Amino acid sequence: MRAKLKELGEEARRALSQAESLEDLNGIRVRFLGKKGELTQILRGMGSLSAEERPLIGQVANEVRAAIEEELALKNTVLKEQVKQQKLKGEGIDVTLPGTPVPRGGKHPLTLVLEEIQNIFLGLGYSIADGPEVETDYYNFEALNLPKDHPARDMQDSFFISSEIVLRTQTSPVQVRTMEKTAPELPVKIIVPGKVYRRDDDATHSPMFNQVEGLAVDRRITFSDLKGTLGLFTREMFGPNTRTRFRPSYFPFTEPSAEVDISCVMCGGKGCRVCSHTGWLEILGSGMVHPRVLEVSGYNSEEVTGFAFGMGVERIAMLKYGIDDMRLLFENDLRFLQQF
Questions:
Q1: Mean pLDDT estimate for the chain
Q2: Best-predicted range by mean pLDDT (50-64, 69-83, 109-123)
Q3: Which residue ranges make up the annotated binding site for Mg(2+)?
Q4: Where are the alpha helices (DSSP H) in 34-52?
Q5: Which PROSITE patterns does the protein's record reference (predicted)?
Q6: pTM of structure
């Protein structure tokens, strides 16, 4: 039996040396060491041996098993490495091939329009001012000639955090804050871009939108200065043939006040469905700064005057790019955004 065991060990080594795959290796393990393997069959015949021979044959059997298991482990390592190298060879990267392009982002249409608005007014000598989006009732309403319970507040249904704290409904509070800091120095020429909040939500309104307001305060500023400034702005934004029209309106913080229309960007003023066949499209509100607002901010309304205007960036973008639903600007649909 000892000779048979040694012969079995040699046979296992020969089989292992010829194994070419992990499947072959597993077959060899089952053949020699499995429950019905050749080594197991030999060991089952040890019952016929004498008590003196049994320990000696058992030792030889254990040595043969240990040798086969060691050879199996070594061969397993070699074959796994071969599989790994073969896989790496098949997955090799051809560095001469062009790389996979990484999609590049672009500016949002609102960002493009806002930058264009800012550049136009920066070119006219205005500076950019900023202020808090969470505002006090005083700056958002009272300092702008809108005392508590004033009916004009209904035009700006608002998000109140408390009775005295509100998400700003316009960027006009920054105008008052700026004048308070600069008074009595002149001139004051600022634009105020930023987010504002109102309870609106439909195809042309959003509860959060972007606004740009402008303010100019100095001696002898007239309504003609306002008309000239906004006329230049509309021609720069919508093209040199754009015409402007001023319609009387009401805003608590300006007097006189006017809505500003431009000739329809779709039909050139001839009349179409977009402009309801009037030839005109409303774009912003404006007016001469109310004397009370000047006084509250620290200026003498007998000595200085000013004008102010405000526009929604979304409104300008919709007119400029022919967008018929404001919600497209906030849905993050790449099919829409990649057009700009």
A1: 87
A2: 109-123
A3: 255
A4: 38-44
A5: AA_TRNA_LIGASE_II (PS50862)
A6: 0.68
